[in-house]
Amino acid sequence: MASPEPSGVDGASASQEAVVEPIRMPTPEEIKGQDIWNNCAVRSVVSGVMGGGLGMLMGLFFGALENPITAEEMTARQQIVYQAKQMGRRSISNAKTFAVMGLIFSAAECVIEKARAKHDTTNSAVAGCVTGGALAVKGGPKATCVGCVGFATFSSSIMAMSRDASSASGA
Asked: From which residue to which does any coiled coil extend (predicted)?
């Protein structure tokens, strides 16, 4: 039977042991916040809004990189106006695409997660398939299948990388 006494000669190991903190129960406000966040509609809308914001920023960046074909013939003012219009068009387009992508992916993943009662890579893969297929449905059945497989692969790989990163950091 092990003794509660420190095993070290001078008792130094007992002073270096980590102190165990008591478990803190969540407050009613924290529980209510978790309940709100666990609602699939709330999660989907927030993901859509955040996706739209990311799309807008990416549109601004990539719109600024586009050069007009006739740049040599344009004055500086014409080039600035052209660039501003391009940035605006790309921002709106990317914001719509990323908002829809975030909304569909988040809604699908949330519904699948609640139905399966698990949080794993399969949920991300199926949600990615639904999202990729939905975004590519206008291109026909072949495009829908390619979108499904491509987005499912991307989602699974991102989930696997985040899982590996969290396990490597000790979380």
From this structure: none
Torsion of CA 84, 48, 29, 20, to 10 degrees: -90
The set of residues, in sequence order, having a beta carbon less than 8 Å from that of 129 and lying 6+ positions away, is: 148, 149, 151, 152
Tens of pLDDT along 65-117?
A: 877 676 678 888 888 888 888 899 999 999 999 999 999 999 999 999 999 99
What are the residue boundaries of the structural domains of the chain, listed by start? 38-117, 119-166
* Residue of 86, 82, 129 lying closest to 104 (CA atoms): 129
Note the pTM of the prediction, 2 decimals.
Answer: 0.75
Contact 14, 68 (CB under 8 A): no
- Looking at per-residue pLDDT, the higher value among 166 and 141 belongs to 141
